[in-house]
Design goal:
The protein is an alpha+beta fold. It folds into three domains: 274 residues, Rossmann fold (3-Layer(aba) Sandwich), CATH 3.40.50.11780; 183 residues, no CATH class; 88 residues, Dihydrodipicolinate Reductase, domain 2, CATH 3.30.360. The protein has 13 helices and 29 strands. The chain has a nine-stranded mixed β-sheet with strand order 2-3-1-17-18-19-24-25-22, sandwiched between helices.
Amino acid sequence: MLQLVRSDIAGFVGLAERGPLPEDFPGQPFDASKVALRISKWAEFLTHFGGFRQYGYLAYAVKAFFENGGAVCYVVRVAATTCADPAQNAARAAFTLPSGPPVPIGTVAQVAGPFQFGVALTGTTGVSAGDLLLIGGGGVTQLNRATNVLAGGQVQLAAPLPTQIANGASVSGFPAVCTISAASRGNWANDVRIQIAPLGSDAFSLRATVDLGPNTPPTEEEWYQSLTLSDPTLYNYAPAVLAEQSNLIRLDITGPGAINLQAYEALASGTFYLQGGRDGLAAVTLQDFSGSSTDLRGLRLLEEIDEVAIVAVPDAVFQTPDSPVIAPVPADPCLPVPPPPPAATPAADPTSVAKPLSTQDSLQLQSRMLDQCVRLRFRVAVIDPPDGQQIEQIQTWAADSGLVQTPASRYAALYYPWLSVPDALQLDGSLRRVPPSGHVVGAYAQTDLTVGVQKPPANVALDYVSDVVQPISDVQQQLLNLNGVNAIRAFPGRGIRLWGARSLATRAEPDWRFIHVRRLMSAIEATLQRCSRWTVFRSNDNTLRSSLTHSLNVLLEDIWARGGLRGATPAQAFYVTCDNTNNPQAVIDQGQLVCEIGVAIAAPMEFLVFQIRQDAAGSQVLES
């Protein structure tokens, strides 16, 4: 018996604390599933992509998805990775371990900023990316990792230079044996503390912890009792063990020899922090979010995942959060005047502050979401409006956005207003305004899993929400309905509910004005297309056509029995035509099998008709 394909699986694209990026797998065959990760619970998202962050809504959206009944989603992380300035791209935190004492290289020639200086060579060796450098001398020294070497001998560093470092300071480098790096790019790994204890010969134990401060317990911790660098065939060969088991770090062999922590006194304790992790958010562009046919990043990656049926990009409307206002504490006249605060130090990661997309780029990204749904046919997009819009403004925005009054509009739904949710980043119980797409997609999934995709996802109570940003009256909702905007409303005693199930379809397409119609049709079409592949290379005769007709009748009758199709009898709800009338000898001679299906979705409309054409080259769905 045929069964409808799953329609509840969502795809999210956005800004995350950590997680894989396409550039993390150089030289390997392309595999979208390594970057677009399948997540089945909130704890998995925390493991792979980290927690909530000030710059981005992705974590809030995925949390809302699972809290509202979602079961499975795919998540794609977005960061700048192709910026012309390498210092703006996302980077892994790392630390290179020495096999011997430092070797003089030269002196600091020109300090060009907290993360960059020129080097005047005095030795026979230069500086390469990844080198562990000892900069300065006397009381001002620093172990720092070179991340890039630019033209003219300019060295970019993993961590900011001490302000006391000046021209003429010594620069030395250590012979390297291995590099410990973060499992994924991002500023998060600058808090990863590594503790190594030699065990004799070349064996060592290793502990990695995410250390957020002296008075905060580690949020994550891993301990490896015995590792080795010498023999790749051993069960405890460090690169293989960490690649397979660690969620925090990786290890790469970079030179001969064994780890020598006595090569410099600051390493003798075996404890150090990874350096140089960058989020790459400041330079994120529309292209990073959307990708293209030849640029497999962002939204483009979701095209490779057939399971995805709903798409959401909450960070398409990201807004820079307001800084919390902290009231000053009145000075106590009985106490001495406190000293002035210390001078500000350079940020550990100047790329960690995300900039919102421009209004034009935001709309372009949402338009590309619709384009993808139209091309792939079997998915829909949940669109977020900009924050801060009043009722009158959202009507104008919807009309002028270019997202409605187009053939693609039937594949999208728009919900208003934004929602207030508990903000885990604040300790005072304050709320954060977030776009509604995560909650909406979760409600879609819950409806699909408990009742079926045939039910309109309306009058659904939302969880993980404290309030709506803008209350909506009955009169105001009528105005929103005219523009295809679905209201989210707070009802005393009934909670906060989705109070609409409209698509953005044009008024000239009344058959498609409800989003569940598009989703049910997509589920039926996807099921028929994928489950009719067995007909390829079979003789197009009465036996084949009768068998296919029977299978389709059983599937559609089941949907009718569950209330998805209207009509007092199956004959009033659907029909299947796959016989000599639409498979004449001319069609058979072309190697095609044509099957016409008409369904009356449980909404005020006539039959929606589509055809499945199957041949050796594949199948094609044609909607009337």
